[in-house]
Structures are given as C-alpha cells and as structure tokens.
Amino acid sequence: MTAILEARNISKQFGGGLFQPPPLTALDNFTMKIETDPPTITAVVGESGSGKTTLAQILLGILPPTTGELLYEGKPLKSLSKREHRNFLRDVQMILQDPYESYNPFYRVDHILRMGIRRFGVAKSRAEEQKVLVDALEAVGLRPEETLGRYPHQLSGGQRQRVMVARALAVRPRVIIADEPVSMVDASLRATILDSLQTLARDYGVSVIYITHDLTTAYQIGDNVLVMYRGVVAEAGDAELIVPNPLHPYTQLLVGSIPRPDPRRPWMEEQQPSEIGRSADPDKGCKFANRCPHAMEMCLEVQPPAYQVDDHRVASCFLHREAAKSEATDLTDVFVTPKGHESSAAD
Ligand code: SF4
C-alpha cells in the first residue's frame, strides 16, 4: 500500500546565501514513510535545534526542502493537481504548541470549528455540520454545552488545546502532526491532551506524529520513537525497546536526564566527551562526536549510517556497526505496528 506521506532523502538548509551567515543544516538526508493502515503514533524527540520542528513544517508542506522531496500518496507535492492538493491539505492537519496564538480572539469556538468543516465540505447540511462539530468536541473530552458559544479567552489552556485537537479532527484528517502540543499546559492537563491524541489513533484511525522534547511523554503515547540530533536520526524504532534500553549515546543521555521518583537514583549527569571527541569538528563526522564519551577517530570523519541493530530498531552509531544486521534506508521498515493491528499490517 502506498504511504500517505513520504519524506524522501530530505535535507533542509537555512542561510548560506550572499551576505548571510554560513548555512545551517536543520535536516540532513531524512527518509521516512507515514502509513495510516493501521494508524500509528510516532513520537519525534529531540532538544532545541534537533530539526524536529523543521521536519514537521516540511511534512505539512509549509516549508520546502532544500533537496529531496515530500510525496503525498506516492506523488511529489509539487506535481499534485489542484484537487489532490486540496485533499493533502485536508488529510494532513496540525496542532500547534500555543493554540492561543493561532486563534482569532474575536471568533467563538463554534466559528473556529466550522471554518475547517466548511472549507473542506465535510458536512452537507447545517444539521450535519452541528453533529460533526459536537462529535469532535466530545471525542476530545469537551462538553459541547460548556464550550460552544465561548471565546478562546474564556477557556482554560487545556480546553483551548483540546479545541485545537477537535478542530483538526473535525475535517476528517488521516494524519495529524502535533508540534509540542503539551509544552504550554500544566502537568495536570497534559495527560488529558495526550489521551486525546491516543483517541485519534485508536478510535478515529488517524496517524499521529507527536513532536516533543520530552522523552517521557514520547514513551507514554508513541508506538515508535524517533530521536533526532542536529538534523539526523540518532535512534529510531519501537518505543518499548528504545526508552528502557537506549543504544545511542545521545538517547542514553536523554533517558538519563529523566527525573526519577527514587531519590537514591540521581539524574545522570552528562558525561564528558572523550579526548578524541573534544577535538571534533562539529560540521564533520558524527554530529554528536563533540559531546560523546565514546567518540573514536572514525567518528570524526563521517556521519554513521542508520544501522539496523535488530528487527525493530536502528541506531546511527559506529559502536553498533559490528552487531548490525544491515544499514537501513527506510526507518519505517523497523517500526512496530500497534498492538491489535499486527495482522492488518501484514495483509
Ligand atoms: Fe559517539 Fe561515535 Fe557513536 Fe557518534 S558514532 S555517537 S561519536 S560513538
């Protein structure tokens, strides 16, 4: 089956023109497919500058790649007909970090939800439109009678973010890209919003790309995790494999910095780079070399490929070259299918 979205050998550079600062590579030769049968949740994790937001913008078609291409249902975005492009805009929806910024404060929630429904012709009558709108609110755990008729400032941060999820869901998308959707809400609301994202995949058949800097929530909801570091994939695959037992030194660092409830087990301090790593040129070789405690001479020369170290994981690190089965060209090959969908994926 053709993937709904495919990022094929995508790189993105910023700057580097005449009178501009040296080019910055935000994404480097990235390849991945997004399937919707069965729907999955893929968590893209990384710190600031890892390229995860650039990836989100490219997948949404709002940022063109410097090289490589984005394909929608097997066709390059640039070659889509008007009708196909409209389908792309409907199928791939986004949820932003700060819903307040994306709302017009003069529009009530009803209007915000109706805009998408009308734009994409989701409902054939006013009655059907009202049903779509009510269903979308209920799907994300909001009571329509307490939400409709209100302005964004009359809602709490958590309610606003859930309206954002409902707005995306109301147009019947197949993929939702959520960029740090819980980073601006407090901990008590985080679980509710994450639960809404899981509902999208489980009950509405929507695949979710969950972009975050927080490995804990990535593990909580992601079927698969993709750890990014300075525009490349450090480690990717089954969340159940990666988070409890990370192989890449960068993932180990992220996992080690997760706060632990046991005070006798302190956070892991970042280990010092190896002697060799200290002399690494940040623009050559492994991008993590100047922070890596295991950096070797070979790490300073070339960026390691994504080694497939077992059926459901790749790690881009020379430490795993010997144990690797092969070099992976498509990360999706190692991704797991959500529980209960294994047979449909094999069909
Ligand atoms: Fe460290 Fe080398 Fe692995 Fe990069 S390739 S993470 S520098 S050991």
Report on the structure:
The protein is of the alpha/beta class and 347 residues long. It has a domain at 249-258 and 266-347. Helix content is 32%, strand content 20%. The protein contains 13 helices and 13 strands. The protein has helices spanning 52-59, 82-91, 99-102, 109-119, 126-139, 144-147, 157-170, 187-204, 215-221, 239-242, 249-256, 275-278, 342-346; strands at 5-14, 24-34, 41-45, 67-72, 75-76, 92-95, 175-179, 207-212, 224-229, 232-238, 307-310, 313-315, 326-327. It has a nine-stranded mixed beta sheet with strand order 6-7-8-3-9-10-12-11-13, with helices on both faces. Strands 2-1-4-5 form a four-stranded antiparallel beta sheet, covered by helices on one side. Helix 4 packs parallel to helix 7 (157-170), helix 5 packs across helix 7 (157-170) and helix 7 packs parallel to helix 8. The chain starts with a strand and ends with a helix. The mean pLDDT is 89. Bound molecules: iron/sulfur cluster (SF4). Iron/sulfur cluster is lined by residues 249, 286, 288-289, 292, 294-296, 299, 304, 317-319. The site of iron/sulfur cluster has 13 residues, from loops.
